[in-house]
Specification:
heterodimer, A: mainly beta, B: mainly beta, seven-stranded mixed beta sheet, four-stranded antiparallel beta sheet, 0% helix
């Protein structure tokens, strides 16, 4: 079945350091979405990537979709305490969305 | 936009009992999804509806689980003969058709004792 893996599982950074999470799919994806889930909250949509090699930026966040459309990354520049949470990638299967295992980010002030 | 609403927020039940959860999606969204999430894991796909039609159901979902969306608006998820392994957060999400972003509700946390 479809699997979407993320690394690392956990990441602790000092405030101001950069952070990157990587997402890998066992199959080619038609698109990939990224979500953020704060502790005790529900996943909230961040962005969607559709094109091979696509790069999108949202302020300090940079999202990239691989050329083969099987991997993606999220990079946060100069982390802040508000960035705390778990970041999930989600790949589109036949008709539904499969979530990755997530990367839990802790930012130490 | 009132968002996706789920009820109840919490449910504690004894093993063997049946439980039913309700999800009210964003009104103009015709897709509705159910996911299950356990601590430290990503949301696990259970099933989804396009309007009132249930188009896909995870093979991981046992026959004790059933979902309905009778009028293409709200949806219910029923678990029969609950087991301790069913303890999890049950998330509902809705979206416009296609690959649109999912809007999640706050979830129903089920604890089976």
């Amino acid at each position: 079945g479809q699997q979407v893996m993320q690394i690392p599982q956990y990441q602790h950074v000092q405030e101001g350091e950069d952070f990157t999470t990587y997402c890998n799919s066992s199959t080619t994806l038609s698109n990939i979405q990224w979500y953020k889930q704060r502790p005790g909250g529900h996943p909230v949509f961040l962005i969607q990537l559709v094109k091979s090699g696509e790069v999108k930026k949202q302020k300090r966040l940079t999202f990239q979709f691989g050329e083969a459309k099987k991997n993606s990354s999220l990079h946060i520049t100069a982390t802040q305490t508000t960035d705390v949470g778990t970041y999930f990638c989600a790949g589109t299967g036949a008709n539904n969305l499969f979530f990755g295992t997530g990367t839990r980010l802790t930012v130490i002030p | 936009d009132t968002g996706v609403s789920q009820n109840p927020r919490h449910k504690i039940t004894k093993r063997g009992q049946n439980v039913t959860f309700r999800c009210d999606p964003i009104s103009e969204h015709n897709r509705l999804y159910w996911y299950r999430q356990t601590l430290g894991q990503g949301p696990e796909f259970l099933t989804y509806f396009q309007n009132e039609a249930q188009l896909e159901k995870s093979r991981l979902l046992s026959d004790r689980f059933s979902a309905e969306r009778p009028k293409g608006s709200f949806s219910t998820l029923e678990i029969q003969r609950t087991e301790q392994g069913d303890s999890a957060m049950y998330l509902c999400a809705s979206s416009l058709a296609g690959n649109s972003p999912l809007h999640f509700g706050n979830g129903t946390r089920l604890t089976v004792t």
